[in-house]
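Hey, resending since the last one bounced:
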Amino acid sequence: MDDIGAIAAIVFANPDEYLGSTLEIAGDELSETEKARILSDVIGRPVELVQSQVPEGFKPDEEQLAGVRFFNGEAYSADIAAVRKIHPDLLNLDRFLRKSGWEDMPVLPMPEGETSWGG
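The C-alpha cells again:
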C-alpha cells in the first residue's frame, strides 16, 4: 500500500504529466516457482509449490474460463521499469515480505482438526 500511496502522490503532484494516462503498478513479474523460491528464502525454510487439482467432473463456468484465459494470456502489462523511474523505492516481493515481518517467520500450527490450510 505504501507504493500505491507514494505513486498516487507523485501523480497528483504532476497532473499535466499523467492526466488521461493509465499506469499499472507492479513491483515484480514472477512465476509461481519464483514466488515459492523467494518465500522460501525469506522465511528460512522450504516452500513446496503444489499445483491445485481440479475435481473430477468439474465444469468451469464462463467467468472462470475468462479468468484462466486472462492469467494465461497477457494479463497485466505493467511497465515495471517505468514505474521504478517514477518511484525508485518500489518494493519487489522479497523486500515487501521482509518489510512486512515475514523474515524467519515461525511455523504456524495447523488448526485443530484440519489436515491442510484452506481445505
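Residues 1-50+77-103 form one domain.

Sorry for the duplicate.
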